[in-house]
Amino acid sequence: MPPSPTTITDPDDPRVADFRDLKAGDRRPGSERGTGPVIVEGVPAVQRLLASPYQVRAVLGVPGRLAALDLPEGVAAYEADKWVLSEVIGFRLTRGVLASADRRPPADLDALLAGPDPAAPRRLAVLEALNDAENLGSIARSAVALGVDGLLLDPRCADPLYRRSVRVSMGHVLALPFAVLPDWPGGLDRLHGAGYLTVALTPADDAVDLAEVDPRAHPRTAVLLGAEGPGLTPEAQRVARVRARIPMRAGVDSLGVAAAAAVAFATLR
Protein backbone atom coordinates (compact mmCIF):
# COMPACT_ATOMS: atom_id res chain seq x y z
CA MET A 1 0.00 0.00 0.00
CA PRO A 2 1.19 3.58 -0.62
CA PRO A 3 2.32 5.46 2.48
CA SER A 4 -0.29 7.51 4.34
CA PRO A 5 0.55 11.20 3.99
CA THR A 6 1.55 13.25 7.03
CA THR A 7 -0.44 16.45 7.47
CA ILE A 8 1.60 19.66 7.53
CA THR A 9 0.08 22.65 9.34
CA ASP A 10 3.17 24.80 9.87
CA PRO A 11 4.73 26.34 6.72
CA ASP A 12 8.10 26.36 8.52
CA ASP A 13 8.03 22.60 9.15
CA PRO A 14 11.57 21.38 8.29
CA ARG A 15 10.20 18.22 6.70
CA VAL A 16 9.05 20.22 3.66
CA ALA A 17 12.25 22.25 3.33
CA ASP A 18 12.79 21.00 -0.25
CA PHE A 19 9.72 22.99 -1.34
CA ARG A 20 10.21 26.18 0.62
CA ASP A 21 10.03 29.55 -1.14
CA LEU A 22 10.55 28.22 -4.64
CA LYS A 23 10.28 31.65 -6.25
CA ALA A 24 13.15 32.88 -4.09
CA GLY A 25 15.05 29.86 -5.34
CA ASP A 26 14.43 31.09 -8.88
CA ARG A 27 16.38 34.24 -8.02
CA ARG A 28 19.11 32.55 -5.97
CA PRO A 29 22.60 32.73 -7.53
CA GLY A 30 23.37 29.44 -9.23
CA SER A 31 19.74 28.28 -9.14
CA GLU A 32 19.82 27.51 -12.87
CA ARG A 33 23.19 25.82 -12.81
CA GLY A 34 22.54 22.45 -11.24
CA THR A 35 22.13 23.00 -7.50
CA GLY A 36 19.46 21.76 -5.12
CA PRO A 37 16.85 19.04 -5.61
CA VAL A 38 14.85 18.53 -8.77
CA ILE A 39 11.35 19.98 -8.26
CA VAL A 40 8.43 18.52 -10.23
CA GLU A 41 4.91 20.02 -10.36
CA GLY A 42 1.59 18.38 -11.20
CA VAL A 43 0.25 14.82 -11.14
CA PRO A 44 1.25 13.85 -14.74
CA ALA A 45 4.80 15.17 -14.28
CA VAL A 46 5.20 13.51 -10.87
CA GLN A 47 3.99 10.24 -12.39
CA ARG A 48 6.74 10.58 -14.99
CA LEU A 49 9.23 11.28 -12.22
CA LEU A 50 8.17 8.06 -10.47
CA ALA A 51 8.78 6.15 -13.72
CA SER A 52 12.20 7.77 -14.24
CA PRO A 53 15.61 6.80 -12.81
CA TYR A 54 15.55 9.80 -10.44
CA GLN A 55 15.36 9.02 -6.72
CA VAL A 56 12.26 10.68 -5.23
CA ARG A 57 12.84 12.44 -1.92
CA ALA A 58 9.41 13.74 -0.92
CA VAL A 59 5.93 14.54 -2.23
CA LEU A 60 3.73 17.40 -1.04
CA GLY A 61 0.16 18.04 -2.11
CA VAL A 62 -3.31 19.19 -1.18
CA PRO A 63 -5.63 16.59 0.41
CA GLY A 64 -6.85 13.98 -2.04
CA ARG A 65 -4.31 14.76 -4.78
CA LEU A 66 -1.70 12.26 -3.55
CA ALA A 67 -4.21 9.43 -3.97
CA ALA A 68 -3.65 9.67 -7.75
CA LEU A 69 -0.01 8.69 -7.30
CA ASP A 70 1.35 5.19 -6.83
CA LEU A 71 4.06 6.14 -4.37
CA PRO A 72 6.69 3.52 -3.57
CA GLU A 73 7.64 2.56 -0.05
CA GLY A 74 10.11 4.91 1.58
CA VAL A 75 8.95 8.11 -0.13
CA ALA A 76 8.03 10.81 2.38
CA ALA A 77 4.46 11.95 1.62
CA TYR A 78 2.96 15.14 3.03
CA GLU A 79 -0.33 16.93 2.54
CA ALA A 80 -1.37 20.45 3.44
CA ASP A 81 -4.35 22.64 2.67
CA LYS A 82 -3.97 25.05 -0.22
CA TRP A 83 -3.20 28.00 2.06
CA VAL A 84 -0.37 26.27 3.92
CA LEU A 85 0.95 24.87 0.64
CA SER A 86 1.00 28.36 -0.85
CA GLU A 87 2.90 29.69 2.16
CA VAL A 88 5.47 26.91 1.90
CA ILE A 89 6.25 27.34 -1.79
CA GLY A 90 5.65 31.09 -2.10
CA PHE A 91 2.87 31.12 -4.72
CA ARG A 92 -0.51 29.57 -5.52
CA LEU A 93 -0.05 26.12 -7.03
CA THR A 94 -2.86 25.17 -9.40
CA ARG A 95 -1.47 21.69 -10.06
CA GLY A 96 -2.01 20.58 -6.46
CA VAL A 97 1.07 18.43 -5.93
CA LEU A 98 4.86 18.68 -6.04
CA ALA A 99 7.70 16.22 -5.66
CA SER A 100 11.40 16.59 -5.01
CA ALA A 101 14.11 14.24 -6.23
CA ASP A 102 17.86 13.85 -6.04
CA ARG A 103 19.77 15.16 -9.00
CA ARG A 104 21.58 12.82 -11.34
CA PRO A 105 24.83 13.88 -12.99
CA PRO A 106 24.94 14.50 -16.73
CA ALA A 107 25.41 11.42 -18.87
CA ASP A 108 28.85 10.33 -20.00
CA LEU A 109 29.34 12.06 -23.33
CA ASP A 110 30.82 9.09 -25.19
CA ALA A 111 28.11 6.77 -23.87
CA LEU A 112 25.40 9.21 -24.94
CA LEU A 113 26.87 9.55 -28.42
CA ALA A 114 27.11 5.78 -28.86
CA GLY A 115 23.73 4.92 -27.37
CA PRO A 116 22.75 1.41 -26.26
CA ASP A 117 23.43 0.13 -29.79
CA PRO A 118 26.26 1.95 -31.62
CA ALA A 119 24.89 0.70 -34.95
CA ALA A 120 21.34 1.97 -34.42
CA PRO A 121 19.90 5.17 -35.95
CA ARG A 122 20.11 8.04 -33.51
CA ARG A 123 18.97 11.65 -33.19
CA LEU A 124 20.36 14.30 -30.85
CA ALA A 125 19.53 17.93 -30.17
CA VAL A 126 22.53 20.21 -29.56
CA LEU A 127 21.83 23.53 -27.83
CA GLU A 128 24.09 26.60 -27.86
CA ALA A 129 23.68 29.33 -25.21
CA LEU A 130 20.03 28.42 -24.75
CA ASN A 131 19.63 30.06 -21.35
CA ASP A 132 15.82 30.37 -21.28
CA ALA A 133 14.62 27.56 -19.00
CA GLU A 134 11.12 27.45 -20.47
CA ASN A 135 12.36 27.19 -24.07
CA LEU A 136 14.66 24.39 -22.97
CA GLY A 137 11.74 22.57 -21.34
CA SER A 138 9.60 22.95 -24.44
CA ILE A 139 12.41 21.61 -26.63
CA ALA A 140 12.84 18.63 -24.29
CA ARG A 141 9.12 17.83 -24.49
CA SER A 142 9.21 17.91 -28.31
CA ALA A 143 12.40 15.87 -28.31
CA VAL A 144 10.83 13.02 -26.35
CA ALA A 145 7.65 13.13 -28.44
CA LEU A 146 9.46 13.17 -31.79
CA GLY A 147 12.14 10.55 -31.32
CA VAL A 148 15.18 12.53 -30.21
CA ASP A 149 17.45 10.38 -28.02
CA GLY A 150 19.33 12.99 -26.00
CA LEU A 151 20.41 16.58 -25.45
CA LEU A 152 23.89 18.03 -25.74
CA LEU A 153 24.42 21.39 -24.08
CA ASP A 154 27.16 23.95 -24.43
CA PRO A 155 28.48 25.41 -21.13
CA ARG A 156 26.18 28.46 -21.30
CA CYS A 157 22.88 26.58 -21.47
CA ALA A 158 20.31 26.62 -18.68
CA ASP A 159 19.97 23.64 -16.39
CA PRO A 160 17.53 21.10 -17.93
CA LEU A 161 16.57 19.98 -14.40
CA TYR A 162 15.68 23.49 -13.26
CA ARG A 163 12.10 23.73 -11.94
CA ARG A 164 10.71 25.75 -14.84
CA SER A 165 12.37 23.51 -17.43
CA VAL A 166 10.84 20.42 -15.81
CA ARG A 167 7.43 22.11 -15.53
CA VAL A 168 7.23 23.21 -19.18
CA SER A 169 8.45 19.79 -20.35
CA MET A 170 5.60 18.21 -18.32
CA GLY A 171 8.26 16.02 -16.72
CA HIS A 172 9.38 14.51 -20.04
CA VAL A 173 12.87 15.97 -19.62
CA LEU A 174 13.39 13.41 -16.84
CA ALA A 175 13.36 10.66 -19.49
CA LEU A 176 15.87 12.42 -21.74
CA PRO A 177 19.59 11.88 -21.11
CA PHE A 178 21.77 14.95 -21.46
CA ALA A 179 25.48 15.73 -21.50
CA VAL A 180 27.62 18.85 -21.66
CA LEU A 181 30.08 19.62 -24.47
CA PRO A 182 32.71 21.58 -22.53
CA ASP A 183 34.73 22.51 -25.62
CA TRP A 184 32.46 24.64 -27.78
CA PRO A 185 32.14 24.56 -30.72
CA GLY A 186 35.26 22.43 -31.24
CA GLY A 187 33.63 19.58 -29.32
CA LEU A 188 31.24 19.08 -32.23
CA ASP A 189 34.06 17.12 -33.89
CA ARG A 190 33.37 14.39 -31.32
CA LEU A 191 29.94 14.02 -32.88
CA HIS A 192 31.45 13.79 -36.34
CA GLY A 193 33.83 11.11 -35.09
CA ALA A 194 30.83 9.17 -33.76
CA GLY A 195 29.16 9.26 -37.18
CA TYR A 196 26.72 12.12 -36.76
CA LEU A 197 25.70 14.58 -39.45
CA THR A 198 25.49 17.93 -37.66
CA VAL A 199 22.71 20.17 -39.00
CA ALA A 200 22.79 23.82 -37.93
CA LEU A 201 19.40 25.54 -38.10
CA THR A 202 19.53 29.08 -39.48
CA PRO A 203 17.09 31.29 -41.41
CA ALA A 204 19.91 32.39 -43.74
CA ASP A 205 19.01 32.47 -47.43
CA ASP A 206 22.13 30.52 -48.43
CA ALA A 207 21.24 27.56 -46.19
CA VAL A 208 19.75 24.42 -47.77
CA ASP A 209 16.09 23.53 -47.34
CA LEU A 210 15.79 21.29 -44.27
CA ALA A 211 13.65 18.87 -46.29
CA GLU A 212 16.71 18.15 -48.47
CA VAL A 213 18.45 16.48 -45.52
CA ASP A 214 17.37 12.85 -45.94
CA PRO A 215 17.19 11.11 -42.54
CA ARG A 216 17.37 7.71 -44.24
CA ALA A 217 20.72 8.64 -45.77
CA HIS A 218 21.95 9.98 -42.43
CA PRO A 219 20.82 7.56 -39.69
CA ARG A 220 22.75 9.56 -37.10
CA THR A 221 21.82 13.24 -37.06
CA ALA A 222 22.37 16.04 -34.55
CA VAL A 223 20.29 19.23 -34.85
CA LEU A 224 22.02 22.43 -33.64
CA LEU A 225 19.81 25.15 -32.16
CA GLY A 226 20.82 28.58 -30.86
CA ALA A 227 19.26 30.91 -28.33
CA GLU A 228 16.08 32.85 -29.08
CA GLY A 229 17.04 36.00 -30.96
CA PRO A 230 20.73 35.64 -31.82
CA GLY A 231 20.49 32.05 -33.04
CA LEU A 232 23.59 29.96 -33.63
CA THR A 233 26.92 31.75 -33.65
CA PRO A 234 28.87 31.90 -36.91
CA GLU A 235 31.54 29.73 -35.25
CA ALA A 236 29.06 26.93 -34.55
CA GLN A 237 27.61 27.17 -38.05
CA ARG A 238 31.10 26.84 -39.57
CA VAL A 239 31.83 23.65 -37.63
CA ALA A 240 28.49 22.02 -38.55
CA ARG A 241 28.44 19.83 -41.64
CA VAL A 242 25.17 21.32 -42.98
CA ARG A 243 23.43 24.68 -42.56
CA ALA A 244 19.71 24.23 -43.06
CA ARG A 245 16.65 26.47 -42.97
CA ILE A 246 12.95 25.81 -42.48
CA PRO A 247 11.15 27.20 -45.56
CA MET A 248 8.68 29.88 -44.55
CA ARG A 249 6.23 32.29 -46.03
CA ALA A 250 7.64 35.56 -47.37
CA GLY A 251 7.81 38.26 -44.73
CA VAL A 252 8.40 35.86 -41.81
CA ASP A 253 12.09 35.68 -41.00
CA SER A 254 12.14 32.93 -38.36
CA LEU A 255 10.27 30.81 -35.85
CA GLY A 256 10.80 30.80 -32.10
CA VAL A 257 13.48 28.30 -31.16
CA ALA A 258 11.07 25.85 -29.49
CA ALA A 259 8.79 25.79 -32.56
CA ALA A 260 11.77 25.50 -34.91
CA ALA A 261 13.08 22.58 -32.86
CA ALA A 262 9.79 20.71 -33.12
CA VAL A 263 9.65 21.20 -36.90
CA ALA A 264 13.25 20.02 -37.30
CA PHE A 265 12.76 16.97 -35.07
CA ALA A 266 9.68 15.94 -37.05
CA THR A 267 11.34 16.56 -40.43
CA LEU A 268 14.45 14.53 -39.55
CA ARG A 269 12.63 11.74 -37.74
UniProtKB/TrEMBL annotation:
GO terms for biological process: methylation; RNA processing. GO terms for molecular function: RNA binding; RNA methyltransferase activity. Residues 1-36 are annotated as: Disordered. It holds the Pfam family SpoU_methylase. SUPFAM superfamilies: alpha/beta knot, L30e-like. CDD domains: SpoU-like_rRNA-MTase (cd18095). Residues 125-265 form the tRNA/rRNA methyltransferase SpoU type domain. The keyword Transferase applies. Residues 12-31 have a biased composition (Basic and acidic residues). InterPro entries: Alpha/beta_knot_MTases (IPR029028), Ribosomal_eL30-like_sf (IPR029064), rRNA_Methyltransferase (IPR051259), SpoU_MeTrfase (IPR001537), tRNA_m1G_MTases_N (IPR029026). Keywords: Methyltransferase, Transferase. This is tRNA G18 (Ribose-2'-O)-methylase SpoU.
